[in-house]
């Protein structure tokens, strides 16, 4: 079934409908989930924008890539993909270490955790990875270990719309993929900036939901990266991914 990443978003939807969290509920411990991730992903380093970072991801060599979707035991396996927005963000941080060095950083919607790992590599003083999917938090911790880092704090609370904590920098890789999520993120980011003067960096490959959103005209382009051939093929012909800085007039 999962012959390629093309069509992945649709597959993810099917997986959600069929099996929301049923496997997760049946698991005894985090270590069972860790073992499941280790057994059902492949360590990947090449063919993306950040060969410095090793990640456990879904590839055609993984059992579930070809399996019937209803056999996949979790809900959304977003964490098993290194999304083009996150790739650009992590590439930008690694190429510009001063951006995160010494900063308190939040990677919101961390997925596999690559942007958080990049910030830590660059000397961020404190990095928190946040994702509402508890499996993503475990995958991120595994990926930290894989890259020789102590596990980063991984938070699974939905912080959007709650009182913002004090961060110097918030990273958002490929987080503008749904209109409702984009709207709530936009308002919450304004709160973060107003309350703490937080800087915000967004990585996005030009998705329609992002390009059409009101936040788009309040962004300054920081960098743009051509996507490697393999990533282009896996993402419906997207060709590049951009890092934006959010500069609202509040
Ligand atoms: C498209 S993936 C991007 C993952 C990663 N940033 C990357 O670029 O590779 C979106 C991620 O956001 C997470 N997510 C969705 N809504 C969220 C929310 N309200 N708070 C935190 N994470 C959320 C999903 O679970 C998923 O892991």
UniProtKB/TrEMBL annotation:
The UniProt keyword set, sorted, is:
Methyltransferase, Transferase
| GO MF term list | protein-lysine N-methyltransferase activity
Keyword Methyltransferase belongs to the record: yes
Q: Which reaction does it catalyse?
A: L-lysyl-[protein] + 3 S-adenosyl-L-methionine = N(6),N(6),N(6)-trimethyl-L-lysyl-[protein] + 3 S-adenosyl-L-homocysteine + 3 H(+)
Q: Which SUPFAM superfamilies match?
A: S-adenosyl-L-methionine-dependent methyltransferases (SSF53335)
- An example Gene Ontology cellular component term from the record? mitochondrial matrix
Q: Which GO terms describe its biological process?
A: methylation
What protein family does this chain belong to?
Belongs to the methyltransferase superfamily. ETFBKMT family.
Q: What protein name does the entry list?
A: Electron transfer flavoprotein beta subunit lysine methyltransferase
| Gene this chain is encoded by | etfbkmt
């Amino acid at each position: 079934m999962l012959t390629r990443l093309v069509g992945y978003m649709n597959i993810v939807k099917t997986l959600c409908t069929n099996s929301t969290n049923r496997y997760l509920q049946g698991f005894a411990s985090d270590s069972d989930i860790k073992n499941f991730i280790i057994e059902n992903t492949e360590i990947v380093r090449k063919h993306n924008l950040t060969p410095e970072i090793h990640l456990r991801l879904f590839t055609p060599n993984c059992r579930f890539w070809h399996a019937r979707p209803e056999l996949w035991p979790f809900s959304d396996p977003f964490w098993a993909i290194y999304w083009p927005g996150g790739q650009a963000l992590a590439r930008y941080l690694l190429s510009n270490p001063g951006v995160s060095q010494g900063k308190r950083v939040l990677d919101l919607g961390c997925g596999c955790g690559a942007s958080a790992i990049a910030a830590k590599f660059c000397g961020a003083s404190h990095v928190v990875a946040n994702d509402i999917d508890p499996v993503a938090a475990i995958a991120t911790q595994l990926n930290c270990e894989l890259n020789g880092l102590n596990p980063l704090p991984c938070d699974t609370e939905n912080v959007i719309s709650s009182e913002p904590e004090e961060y110097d920098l918030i990273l958002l890789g490929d987080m503008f993929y749904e209109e409702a999520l984009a709207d709530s993120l936009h308002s919450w980011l304004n709160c973060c900036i107003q309350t703490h003067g937080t800087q915000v960096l967004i990585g996005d490959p030009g998705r329609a939901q992002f390009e059409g959103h009101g936040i788009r005209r309040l962004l300054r382009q920081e960098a743009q990266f051509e996507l490697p051939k393999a990533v282009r093929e896996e993402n419906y012909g997207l060709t590049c991914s951009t890092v934006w800085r959010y500069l609202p007039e509040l």
